[in-house]
């Protein structure tokens, strides 16, 4: 059932274009995004959105908060479910509470939606499992359509979450008529291109396979990025950590000088997410500072960057979300290749479970 792949994780990474195609089916019109599960009238009175989740799903939530503010112009905040439920949160009674969960059974996320419901908020679940506990609690659901995910490390469910959030943001932006015609058209064009972007390129996979042997020892990994590429940095670090058991952290590139740079040395591998579309020059100057401290630099970028020890060349796109999905495949494969070289079972990492039903 692994269909020739070494691990379910690998199969699921390669499956992503098909998953994204399923998500877009029936939703991507000539002129607009359609989401039959929602109505514009349901969304229109909503004045803010809170996104709540755990782990990888939390990284999707964070990505979604950038998209919702940009495309729908609704105030968006993000919460880690295990923190949220105990801190006596003050919620906007006219707000929408969105929970994101692959399994639909994560205990903290389930309790969070119950709490929001009890306070009278509208609720929406983004979930991969129909009839799960979280779906049963939610007023509305957008099913993720990712198919069963077997690898404990979430890959295709994450890309499904992010794409669904992008659709939600655009749909909401349409309902509120906040996007210029030109901006809206640009989003639709990018959505049409996303399937191709997630197709694994053999050249890239091969390069990551070869590079991975250089990174098996060291003090650890920094993943850095800005804007949408900050949640992606967090996700790259999480993926690597959970299956390789090496230390990794994700940081906003601009935050370097406030603390993480203290760790920089040649044994620290910095994976810089250098998106052409998004504050490239700013990220570059953050990376230059790390390089001056002798950090070993691995740049994921379209550009030539002479300071990098290794460059993982990606294809150029003028839309940030296309760069996001292109880089997502790279960080997923990088984590997998490093973990396989270390001899780990990437489908069943130690100490982790696919569904976390206790808090
Ligand atoms: C990481 C991973 C976990 C889950 C987290 C939430 O690859 O799988 O961090 O993302 O336990 O699970 P769900 O999405 O099922 O609520």
UniProtKB/TrEMBL annotation:
A single GO molecular function term of this UniProt record: glutamine-fructose-6-phosphate transaminase (isomerizing) activity
Coiled-coil ranges per UniProt: none
Enzyme Commission number(s): 2.6.1.16
Keyword field: Aminotransferase, Glutamine amidotransferase, Repeat, Transferase
Organism domain of life: Bacteria
Domain SIS positions: 39-178, 211-349
Reaction(s) the record says it catalyses: D-fructose 6-phosphate + L-glutamine = D-glucosamine 6-phosphate + L-glutamate
UniProt keyword Repeat, yes or no: yes
Protein name (database record): Glutamine--fructose-6-phosphate aminotransferase [isomerizing]
Organism: Thiorhodovibrio winogradskyi
Shown residues in whole-protein numbering: 273 to 631 of 631
Enzyme class: transferase
